[in-house]
């Protein structure tokens, strides 16, 4: 039986350096309602402020657009050949947070510069580790499923380029570790009977569900956003002071999640094994 949540949230996340991030946006939606932005404490959200906000939530399903883990299934380890390679995702999150404990704002640059671990990352300055893998790099099973579905995921070991997700994912792993005991994370945890639940999402899945064509999924006006919301069966949003990709992605993502959460099949992807649920996780919304 699918759990019914009172509210749904989408967080457009960022791994950029610095305390306050214009690239972070948070939106909340009730079933069938219009999504609304959650305003930050100051001009922009910080990752620490998102952590505090999440820790205060209760009956809410939260989608965040980062990779919650690294590839594991392809090599039987996150960091093959390294004796200290974690055995599962929660151990990985603890490792990431421990190795970067002195970095503010949930940053993780010290980890990717680690002598052994740097071998797995593609970093700036043309520095590609010898264990990064060929081409686009190592991919999780869910990322291969996304590619088969026509999406364009990036390896979480890639830290270079506009489409990279590595920095945001490392910051996200620190976030998940610090929320342990306060928020469950699917599929690493079973869906709890109460309390907040976090899932990894692609905001491009929301855009696709709303009928936005590939390459034209960025909404930068009230009219474009309301048209996408209407396609999902939601009423218009309250006008914003300004429009950018982050805010509109969060608003549409929250509305989409409120609908997608009712789809039993999305909670039981055919390729999601017990081992993957412990190690790599899965992107909610992919069959």
Question: Can you walk through the features of this model?
Answer:
The chain is α/β, with parallel strands linked by helices. It is globular and about 55 Å long. The protein folds into two domains: 7-68 and 179-267; 89-175, no CATH class. The chain has helices spanning 47-55, 89-99, 109-112, 141-148, 166-178, 203-209, 222-231, 245-260, 274-279; strands spanning 7-12, 20-21, 25-29, 36-37, 45-46, 60-64, 122-123, 127-128, 184-185, 197-200. Helices cover 29% and strands 11% of the residues. The strands form three sheets. The protein has a six-stranded mixed beta sheet with strand order 4-3-1-6-10-9. A two-stranded antiparallel ribbon has the order 2-5. A two-stranded antiparallel sheet has the order 7-8.
